[in-house]
C-alpha cells in the first residue's frame, strides 16, 4: 500500500510539473511539446491530475473533496424558479415546473453519489479492520466469521419466512373468518391507499410546489405496489451478510458451499461443526454448546492407513511408483534359476540356506520375513530357506568390499579404465568372476 501511495504521489508531482512547464511554452510550440509528453491537450493533463488525486485520496483513506464548482449555465437553466407564479404566464408556469423537476433530480443524483462514496469508504474501513484482526489471529478470526455468518443467515431467513407466513396468514383468515378487505390490509397497504386518495383530490388546488422537498419524491415509493412485501432495498443484516460472505470467499471457504439454504446470493457453508452433538445429549446434559472452538493441532493431523506400508513394499513391487523392474524376491529367484543350469542341487540348497541381506533398507521391521516369503513362493515345497541379516546392515557391505580390496586376488578380479578403452564394452559384458565355495 505504501509503495502504491508513493507511486501516485510521484505521478502527481510529474503532472503538476508538466502543467507548470506548459505555462511557459509559446502557443506555436505547444503541439510539439505535448507530442513529446504523450498528451494531446492541456485539458487531458488536468483530467489526469484529477484522476490521480482521487486515487491518492482513496489509497490514503481520505474522502474526496467535492468541489462545488459554480456552473455558469445554472442561472440560465433555472431562471424561473425564484419568480412567483402570479408574475408568470401559463407557458412560463409549465417551464418553471420542468426546471424544478430538473433541479431536484440533479441534486438528488449528487446526494446519491455522495452517499455511495461514503458507503464505499465505510466498507473499505471495515475490511481493513477485518484484515488486521485476521493477521493477528487467523484461526480465531475465521471461527468468529463463521459464527457471524451463521447468525446473520438465520436472521435473514427468519425475516423472509415471517413475510411469507404473514401473507399466507392473511389469506387463511379471509377464508375462515370472512373479514372484509379493509381488515386484511396491512399498514403499508393502508398508507398507500390513503396517499392515492389524497393525490386524487389535491389536483388543481393553488400553486403546485411538489418536488421542492426531498420527502415529496418518497411518495412514489410508498404508493408503489412493489413495496407491499419488500423494503426499499436490502436491510443492514443482508448487507452485512453479503460482506461477511465475501470475506469468507476471499479466504477460500466459499468453495465448500455447494448448496444454498437461504438464497443464491448468500450461500451457507455446508461444513462439519466440531461443536455439534445430538439433541438427546443436549437435553440430558442441559449445557449449551460453545459458540465456537479454537482449532488445535489435532485438526491439522492426517491419519495414515496403508500408506506407511507402501514405502518398503516398493523394494518388492517397483511398479507401485511406475518403475518397470523386477522386485527383490524375484531377482533372488532369477539368480537361483540360473544356478540350475549347472544341475547341482547342492549349490541351490547352499544358496537358499544362506541368504544374507544387508544395506540400510534391512532396518525395516519384518524385512527378513518378507524376503523369505517371496523366495518360498518360487521354491519347491519343503525346501529349506534361511534368511540372515547382517549384524551391521548399514556398514557391513562397505567392510566386505574393503576386505576384498585388501587381498592379493583383488587385482586379478577387476578391470581398469585402460582395459575398458583397449578392449571395449563387449569384453566387459563377457567378463566373469570366479567364486570359490
From TrEMBL:
Coiled coil: 5-69
Keyword terms, alphabetized: Coiled coil, Nucleus
InterPro entries tied to this protein: Actin, ATPase_NBD
Compositionally biased spans, kind Low complexity: 165-176
Pfam families: Actin (PF00022)
Superkingdom per UniProt: Eukaryota
Subcellular location, record wording: Nucleus
Composition skew (Basic and acidic residues), residue ranges: 106-135
TM segment ranges: none
Annotated region described as Disordered, given as residue ranges: 101-135, 160-181
GO (cellular component) term, any one: nucleus
Full protein name: Actin-related protein 5
